[in-house]
Protein: FAS1 domain-containing protein
Organism: Pycnoporus cinnabarinus
Amino acid sequence: MVLPSQPTQDGSGEPFIPVTYSGKPSLADLLTIESSASIFYSYARETELSKLFSDAHAQITLLVPTNKAVIALPRKPHEGPAPIREGVILSEAEFDDLSKKNVERWVQAHIIPSPISLASPQEYTTLLAGKNVTFTPLDGDKDVPEWARVVLNGDVRLTGIREASNGMMYILDGTVLLD
């Protein structure tokens, strides 16, 4: 005996087919559980770019500063560069708009829109127009993983690496500077 299709929640009568899990968490999942990167993720969630972190097809590289690195910045990401004109008073709306733009630019500078290789010195374009970053392998202890012997822009060390279903996350002991 064949039973007729039961209506599903959407009323289509089509059988429910569960989505299969790839076995790896998304970048959004990794950022959620990486407590040492909570400040970066807090800033990133304020932007539309954070949608990339859960996009299964994104395949991006995130450069994620630790909380300690963000705290050490002389000017925080929402503050942007030093003001050009001292004494200019902004309305609350203007200040909020400027803060959002500063955060957007800072987060863009920490996203490379493709997978990268750490094997040889190479420059990569970030999502921030005109901002490139360079990874340089250093000579050192061959018992240390390859990623731990690489610096970003000459002085920022990689302190961790996480692989996600939609890209890679490199944890940094510094930030990408927007100078």
